[in-house]
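Homework-ish question, so no full write-ups if that breaks the rules, but can someone show me the predicted structure for this set?
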Amino acid sequence: MALPEIEVGQVVAEREYVIDRGSLVRYAGASGDFNPIHYRDDVAASVGLPGVLAHGMLTMGLAVQPVVDWLDGRGWVSGYGVRFTRPVVVDPTEGATVAVTATVGAVDEAGARIDLTVSAAGGTVLGKAQVRVTAL
Amino acid sequence: MPVNPLLTEREFPPTAPYLVGREKVREFARAVLATAPIHHDLAAARAAGFSDVVAPPTFPVVVQEATLAQLLAEPDGGIDFSRVVHGEQRFDYARPVVAGDELTATLRVTSVKSLGGNSMVTAESTIVDSAGAPVVTAVSTLVVRGDDA
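A: Not a homework solution, just the prediction itself:
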């Protein structure tokens, strides 16, 4: 099955995800990462953080989902890499909103490279976030 | 204590086999807000050509974690976990992970660098299935903050 017709620069998906403290507890359990900076304000403050932070791997994990949904079984994610450039602070009442824009970065015979722009509170939180997709 | 530069090229013993459970895949998928039916619905996964529900792309971190625990526990490594920040992460997949896979990971340190008082440790975990066939390679760069950072 082929990928849909795409060209470099085209936005293929845009999504916003709201995460809250419950999201962090759920990810801690699912992943096994129980670092208390992801659920305890006192511990986060004691190591000089601006607040409880989302797991970087939670942000990385949700940021690729718009691409998976866009592929809709026509291809699969064969490579994925990010730099963690800025933490996502999760407010105890407001949570945090993570915005993802997925843009075609390159196209070749086997598939494409999709570049992700991932931001929260007005700042970019993942750098060089690139998804390699391969057509099925 | 700084990170030991002699960690470079060190390879660790393979981890105990990790059996990927169907409910674990569903639990992880819910946690990363992965709603595609192939992650949850067996019939949908099979219709898409997979033997069982498909793990989301970042799921291998669960298997990789056991290898990073080996690295952090290395007696001469000099890595203080309370000063560790995740700098970069990358996955390269030979195929998607599916429920029923029995995965084993082997970690190798590929570089140790010093930069502005911090140390950057890059480690590659090669994850194979029960037949020894490659499934995914996970590469992490850990930033170990120095005393002044």
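Now go work out the reasoning yourself. Hint: The first strand of chain B starts at residue 18 and ends at 19.
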